[in-house]
Amino acid sequence: MMVDFGFASMAIILGVTFVEAPRDEGGYAMSKISMASFTLTQAIGTALAELYGHFISDRLPLYLFHRKSKSQDIEPTEWRPEYRLHCLWVPVIMLPIGLGLFGASLEYHYHWVLLALGFLLLTFGAISLLPVAMTYLCECFPNHVSEVSAGMGVWRLILGVLSAVFIAPWNDRVGPGWLFGTAGLITLPAFGGVIVLMVWGRQVRQMGIRRLRS
Questions:
Q1: Residues 6 or more apart from 15 whose CB is under 8 A from it?
Q2: First to last CA, the chain
Q3: Residues in CB range of 43: below 8 A, 6 or more apart
Q4: I need a labelling partner for 29 at 20 to 30 A (CA). Which of 15, 112, 146, 160 fits?
Q5: How crowded is residue 45: how many other Cβ atoms within 10 Å of its Cβ?
Q6: Residue partners of 68: CB distance under 8 A and separation at least 6
Q7: Residues near 163 by beta carbon (within 8 Å), at least 6 away in sequence
């Protein structure tokens, strides 16, 4: 999941740099006012992610639990944090689509509306991933919530800083189309680890260090 967030950070953090660049350098030559307006798509994507989390992050896991248990009464011993991971299906689909559309728009100079749509989708995907991942890890390690939160914060900071290091030479070598297209493709197999946790997450947690088990 954090791999997905790292790739999305490339566009979110450096997206303004691409749209400000001259057209002959692969950009959109937007003015300062146009760039400020363009970044509203990020705010819209974030707002949609908040709405998605508000209506889905608890309802879907509880629905899956009730359907499996055939009961409306929640027993703490039967609840599994892995139910929450199913909230990631929509974001993990939207993120590569957004990355691909964003990269293709830069590569072939599609209309700025398509560029904005890609930016919105990847923002929605990236922001929607984080709360689910955080909640899942906190439920897996209920006695170490502070450590989990700190670790996630450090990891996000590392990904954000590193993206600025390798994105420029990567873009110079292959162009924005291949850059973001490849990033979008990589997010798909990266989700395989989450699917493993969906199916065998309980067994994986039981294999962990005894004092950290939930």
A1: 39, 42, 102, 119
A2: 21
A3: none
A4: 160
A5: 25
A6: none
A7: 6, 7, 9, 10, 13, 14
Phi-psi region of 134 (alpha: psi -120 to 50; beta: other; left: phi over 0): alpha
Architecture of domain 2-212: Up-down Bundle (1.20)
- In whole angstroms, give the CA distance from residue 1 to residue 8: 11
Domain boundaries, the chain: 2-212
Dihedral of CA atoms 198, 199, 203, 204 in degrees, nearest 10, equals: -50
pLDDT attached to residue 167: 82
CA–CA distance, 115 with 43 (Å, rounded to integer): 15
Q: Can you read off the two tokens belonging to residue 83?
A: 């139910």
- The DSSP secondary-structure symbol of 28 reads -
Which are the contacts of 110, defined by CB distance < 8 A and separation ≥ 6?
Answer: 104
Q: What is the per-residue pLDDT across 98-135, written as a single tens digit (0 to 9) for each?
A: 999 999 998 898 999 999 999 999 999 989 998 999 99
pLDDT-derived band of residue 9, with 50, 70 and 90 as boundaries? confident
What is the DSSP track for 67-123? Answer: HHHT-SSPPTTT--GGGGGGGGHHHHHHHHHHHHHHHHHHHHT--HHHHHHHHHHHH
Tally of CB atoms within 10 A around 49? 21
The DSSP output letter for 210 is G
